[in-house]
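Suppose a colleague, Dr. K., hands you the sequence of a protein chain of 485 amino acids and asks what its three-dimensional shape might be. Before reaching for any lab equipment, you can write down a predicted structure in token form. Begin with the sequence itself:
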Amino acid sequence: MSAHRRTLVRLARPVYFELLAGVAAGIINMVWVARLGGDAVAAVALAGNVENLLLGVVLMAGSGTTVLVARARGADDPGAVRAAVRGGTALCALLVPPVALGGYLLREPLATLLLGGSGHPAHALATACFAISLPGTAVFFATNVLDGILKGAGDTRTPMRLAFLANGLILVLDPLLIHAYGVPGAALATVTGRSVALAAGLLALRRDPLLRAARAARAALPTAAALRRTAATGLPMSVDFVVRMAGALALVSVVARLGVTEIAAYGLATKAMYVATMAFYSVRQAAAIHSAHLLGSGLDERRAVGRQALLLGGTLGAGAAGLLFLGAGPVMRAFGAEPGVAAAGALFLRCLGPYLLLMAGYIALAGVFEGTGASPYLARITVVGVLVQLPLAHALSGAGLPGICLAMALAMGAQCAALGLLHRRTLAAVPGSLSASRTGPSRGPAESAARGSSRRPPRDAAPSPCAATGSGRRSRWRRSADRSG
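The predicted structure, expressed as tokens, is then:
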């Protein structure tokens, strides 16, 4: 197995289980809330949709911090790591007040807007849920940035453990608090579990050797400049996520025209599809971390990393397509769907194969663009892809759910073609010197050569004789930068 592929697998596996834990906890949460009736389910589902939208906002801080910390780690620059951490923290602090405080003050108008009027049966429950969940976004945002710092430092296992802790507590607290307080109890259980995990994460952050060494260094940038850099790095990733979410919601409106059975089947089938797509996004995060680290160390390996990410993503996509094709019926029956809904959902899942394969390759390769600073191009491709998908879905909806699948596959194929062309152009334009891409201030040729001669090769490279004998500078910073997480 390629060294790059081993690194991608090592980084991606914990990320996948972290994402899976959140989905599993959300499903079980809905099971408990369902006992309170349909209005309660609608209120909690509405709060979940708002949180998904807010995730796109905080990704600007979390993803930007991950890339900048990984790049600074590769450059062996503790000052740049400290600046990246400061920038992400400051951006998070800037985003929290308008969302948490503003959301609390506007909770009732927000519920009215999203439910189509204050007379909706779920309005009072949604307002009560927002009164806890929206202020709780302070914890949600802080946890996302903390995870981004740890992932940039090469540690994807600690965020996975924190997710297990938070979601485990939510599963324990849900029946107790929902029984005591109803719908607000579900929001309270979520905020409480995340708060405990955040406290544990802050302790893990203080114990991390790499980040402890960075705290002792002078920050490479002032806090305001670091904040702007983090926002500029993370904004395209945030836009990409929000546009995809908006496209998915718009597609629901197209499916809804097909009938009640089709929309119910589509809603259940997409939950099964998300279990597969989370694996693609875990590879994307791993590729972004690995590419940024290599670029910071002075190695532009985007061709090799891109090839391995594409291979890994394609393998996962083909496997997911095959499993869903063969197990579509049992999967739909596991949701307890009625026979008509189960049959329509199974047909949809069996037709998803081309879309999943194309999406897996696109998402995996996109991680390389994120890690090497080319994410603005991804946001543009995503916008165009969504604009292509919706008219296609309208045109092909006459064929039912298979027509929707075809529209999704064609739009994703167009995005893959655009990304492939962009990848080729990016590789052709790679400069001979990477000094401009490295973290920190620019250096002259002599200084860069001197620094490069003392830099240890990254984990993927073969060790030098000097490194094998233990000579050269092996500080705690360098040792911690290569831990497996």
